[in-house]
Amino acid sequence: MVSFEGFAISGSLPIYTQLILYIKRGIVAGTVCGGDELPSRRVLSALLGVNPNTVQKAYHLLEEEGIIESRSGARSFVTADGELKLRLRAELLEQDAAAWISAMKQMGLTREEALRMTEVMWDKTGGEA
Amino acid sequence: MVSFEGFAISGSLPIYTQLILYIKRGIVAGTVCGGDELPSRRVLSALLGVNPNTVQKAYHLLEEEGIIESRSGARSFVTADGELKLRLRAELLEQDAAAWISAMKQMGLTREEALRMTEVMWDKTGGEA
DNA sequence: TTAAGTGTATTATATCCGTAATACAGTTTC
DNA sequence: GAAACTGTATTACGGATATAATACACTTAA
Fold it and tell me: Which residue of B29, B30, B114 is in closest CB contact with A118?
């Protein structure tokens, strides 16, 4: 069962987008694997304090991308092979890095200043190693 | 006069938010300075192919933050002293770094992998040194 | 002084996001 | 088989975003 313990709504992105990102990044990290069952729309919406339609939209879009599968009446589950995992990793890393580097360049930082910034902030923030 | 040559609408953020970010990052970079005149609402909206109300919203919010000033009838201009520049630099850098590092940790990257990612992508993208 | 440009405000419309309340058919489980 | 749960769909409402069309008073420049 895919866990949503580490998930929290934050920022200005639409909630369904945040849910999609959480699943995709979990697949890249290996914490979400092919065959894993997903919480039902109703259960997850109640857990997060969010409308069922919002979860439905996220699941529906994930299914259109071939990342999860739904059979009417039964619980949905993840369909993630190694190829998809690699595709997602490349997509998300490039996307995030491009946004970060673009912002740094717009503010006039040099490459070394950006690297030092990453080093300093990495340990200040919680999460992982 | 503040130039919007390097500005382009992109991504999912509201247009008025992108305009605000462009001004703020320009101030941090030093390309936008106190006393600089801003394009009028009508001129800038025509230049960007955007509704005048969208530019008005961005300018209005910037004025509420004390970053620009408007006199009814005359052109608006930037009011940015050194203190504001430092405040903006700290705010924006921390905000962007936090988003970037959080994404990397969610995908299970180590600190060194994130640093290497920055190094590799820095030269691949256009902009500055 | 007159004309042009400017900031500001209003009303209307359309789309997206999120919530709310249902409804129905399919599956799982007892 | 029956109850509970599931995916799916619909309608309605409010807020935010963006567009469109005006309108008015103020400043600037010719």
Answer: B114
Provide the residue range defining the domain that includes B56.
15-80
Mean pLDDT for all residues in chain B: 96
Query: A32, A101, A120: best mutation site toward chain B, by most B Cβ within 10 Å?
Result: A101
Which residue's structure tokens are 């339609």?
A53
Q: Is residue A104 a contact partner of residue B99, using CB atoms and an 8 Å limit?
A: no
Taking contacts as CB-CB distances below 8 angstroms, the residues of chain B near A12 are 13, 17
pLDDT in tens, A54-64: 999 999 999 99
Are both B22 and B66 inside the same structural domain? yes
Specify whether A75 is located in the same domain as A114.
Answer: no
Tell whether A8 is covered by a domain. Answer: no
- Closest protein residue to C10 (Cα–C1'): B53
- B23 in any annotated domain: yes
pLDDT in tens, B44-98: 999 999 999 999 999 999 999 999 999 999 999 999 899 999 999 999 999 999 9
DSSP-derived pairing of the beta strands B68-69 and B77-78 = antiparallel
Helices A82-106 and A15-29: crossing angle, nearest 10°? 120
Q: Distance from residue A50 (CA) to nucleotide D17 (C1'), in Å?
A: 22
